[in-house]
Write a structure and sequence with these properties.
By secondary structure, the chain is mostly beta strands. It has no helices and 11 strands.
Length: 117
Amino acid sequence: QVQLVESGGGLVQPGGSLRLSCAASGSRSSFSVMGWYRQAPGLERESVAGITSVGSIHYADSVKGRFTISRDNAKNTVYLQMNGLKPEDTAVYYCSVVDAFGRTRYWGQGTQVTVSS
């Protein structure tokens, strides 16, 4: 059974930085896609950034130039470096991975990111 363990959320002032990590376990193969979603109160969950096993990356327009996604395939870990944080980035951030066959998506438990002065 695939398990995702997220870490790195917290409270930060506007303009500050945080780094989220998500370690995946329980799979013998690397994941085809690893990424991050977020959900703010009253809003739908949205994609923030994703990275494929060969390094193709996409970002939501709202985070381009501020967030950087990366992955360590040897550790089955995905990271999200968040710089220049804004109050509108406040949300629960979820790690999500897709198995090597592209068939099943798994979700982490979520980590709270709050940007406030």
